[in-house]
């Protein structure tokens, strides 16, 4: 006897499911993969069992195989929903006690199906009839049986929505694959519902296993061909949780009116509140006297929580959906309490150095000059040495003051004619130190930068050369290389000592390794602030090379 075409279709679906299982072995350890395998195993058993059922006319064996098909309906939905939860990174739901309690539904359905001959609450009137060349089965599905099928289909529907929504959120990367995932349960799902309702060309035959053929094809495309198990949503979900939930920085999500939508644990600790107490309440209500605007931007707030006073810089970023509609703001609180305390201590120290040390140094300098002019011999030399040392100390203080007044790059960038600025710097340096300085910069070379910082940079490079090598020939040059301006200051002296350059490269001084002055530090700091690169070549004299961006925007300078 020839095999009926429905049986052949069921066996073909089973073989396709087996092939899909072989392709999934490499992804066994990926999130949701084990539940997906369980889904396909259930589907495989269902297909082979129902294919065999279509060949069996013995009522007892045919009923047993029909029960296996029912178990496939019951368990495939739960397994698919479990896969969707794991695949999309919702492991907390998957491992929760209440979801484990949901497993009681398919367990109860299994018990009812297996024991149905005793109570007939799932179906009744079972009999084997010839249908489509095979062994069909006619019976009435009762309300409990219909409810069992509906629950299973709801599981499949929820799982499909989870996968479809999450994968689509990747954007165009997996859009076609997401469509395949969304469509794959439709053919078998529709077949189950039509069969349960007694609708179809052959009511005595369940066409679901035949509809697993397109289902397998779509799954192969979505999960094997496109490597969706390699780039699964669980990674992004875990990353989002780590980026907001697990970080130590307080983060609040607010709507357009500034009402709290979510707080991460760090924000709860900062505000000394429970997240559930703050939901839908204005965030400003928990910030004391300082309010933050709800139109984005940054601000500063003081927070009293747990008996501690902390200062925070608040940065708001617009939260938009894929259509560009603004939904609210992500509010990030950066704790700057220690930074502010350091700034205040530095302000006190700076005032002390500027007033007390400078004033006392001027007194010592004037008395040393007086003594040097009135004394003779060795005593005059001692007075002159004192005068020179105090002069160097006063100059260092002036340089430090210049840097402090210039700020950390707050001034807006301006167009600068480099040759003119260099000429002014060189003229000032010649008056103070003498020496020979040549400027070799094209007259039309311009750059957009912060003039005050660039002047400090050039002045200290030229002064450093003239101070340490009075008789050296100093050359200031500049060229354009790509988008950068390369400035060089060269002399033919003995070169900057290695220990001075070592301190600059390390970026810090120690008791045993320190520079002899602040000039080179000013060069390094201003270069860094101007987003440039600094290099020294001491193989033949000293050549300081500074590479600066030719165009610097206000945003880059901020």
Automatic annotation (TrEMBL):
It is a multi-pass membrane protein. InterPro entries: BphY/WalK/GraS-like, HATPase_C_sf, HATPase_dom, His_kinase_dom, HisKA_7TM, PAS, PAS-like_dom_sf, PAS_fold. One of its GO terms (molecular function) is ATP binding. The chain crosses the membrane at residues 6-24, 36-57, 63-85, 97-119, 139-167, 179-198. It is an enzyme of class 2 (transferase). It comes from the Archaea. The keyword Transmembrane applies. Its EC number is 2.7.13.3. Keywords: ATP-binding, Kinase, Membrane, Nucleotide-binding, Transferase, Transmembrane, Transmembrane helix, Two-component regulatory system. Its main location: membrane. Residues 236-291 form the PAS domain. GO terms for cellular component: membrane. It is found in: Membrane. SUPFAM superfamilies: ATPase domain of HSP90 chaperone/DNA topoisomerase II/histidine kinase (SSF55874), PYP-like sensor domain (PAS domain) (SSF55785). Residues 352-552 form the Histidine kinase domain. It catalyses: ATP + protein L-histidine = ADP + protein N-phospho-L-histidine. CDD domains: HATPase (cd00075), PAS (cd00130). GO terms for biological process: osmosensory signaling via phosphorelay pathway; regulation of DNA-templated transcription. This is histidine kinase. The lineage of its organism: Archaea, Methanobacteriati, Methanobacteriota, Stenosarchaea group, Halobacteria.
